[in-house]
Amino acid sequence: VPVPPASGDLSGLRILVTAGGTREPIDPVRYIGNRSSGKQGVAVALAAADRGAKVVLLSANIDESVLAEARRREGIRIVPVSTTAELERAAIAAATGAEVIVMAAAVADYRVAEVSEAKIRKEDGGAPTISLVENPDILVGLVDERRPGQVIVGFAAETVESEEELLERGRRKLARKGVDLLAVNAVGWGEGFETEENALVVLDGDGQVAARAAGSKRETAERLLDTVLQDLHAI
Ligand code: CTP
Ligand code: CA
């Protein structure tokens, strides 16, 4: 299916997109990470830029092959980050200059309490116990500091047994985060992550289904941005 031509309907808008997955170091050579490829977030950045927006893309450990097209877009500024603390700092710095925030990054919920200065060795004494501490919720922080009229979009990838459970979990998360829109999708082993296709349900601030989108990550990104634009106009 061809990507619809750029319409310029987002021209003049500044959009902050976070994408990829944060990593938390264990020692100098190891980390705790997740399977997010960054493809959905990059697709949002590309779609927004092609519709005239100025995009800041906070890229958490995204493979260069996934970023290649975004690197060539004039309207996209890519800022690399790795840990959750780095993403948080960059997001707070960029948020004040954005009318729209799309938080597509998969953020590590926990980080390692004490990162080892040296590589952990088997000689040190068998399987180590790694203590974790909770990371701050970046999205909740951004919602707390929201500027007037700013539209904030969260993402939620859920492992669920049914569509009903997906919506129920999505609504609970939406209420917990206080976002304007939440894009929820079902994931499993090899579903949603690292794939070319996606299926999103977009919930509005009241928990109502504002849009459903299935197809390539670019197509779902376009539909998500349509919903964001409706939300901006409604304010
Ligand atoms: N998020 C965030 N900071 C965190 C964790 C999550 O900003 N420390 C954001 C994600 O970028 C995403 C949204 O919150 O946009 C939902 O992430 P998710 O992991 O689904 O939510 P959690 O609150 O971490 O709940 P769960 O226990 O289901 O992981
Ligand atoms: Ca989480």
TrEMBL record:
UniProt feature coiled coil, ranges: none
Highest taxon in the source lineage: Bacteria
Positions of the DNA/pantothenate metabolism flavoprotein C-terminal domain: 10-230
Entry binding sites for CTP: D109, K119, P136, D137, I138, L139, F155, K173, K177
Stretch list, region Phosphopantothenate--cysteine ligase: 15-235
Protein task: Catalyzes two sequential steps in the biosynthesis of coenzyme A. In the first step cysteine is conjugated to 4'-phosphopantothenate to form 4-phosphopantothenoylcysteine. In the second step the latter compound is decarboxylated to form 4'-phosphopantotheine.
Family: In the C-terminal section; belongs to the PPC synthetase family. In the N-terminal section; belongs to the HFCD (homo-oligomeric flavin containing Cys decarboxylase) superfamily.
Name of the protein described by the UniProt record: Coenzyme A biosynthesis bifunctional protein CoaBC
Gene: coaBC
Residue numbers of the full-length protein present here: 237 to 471 of 471
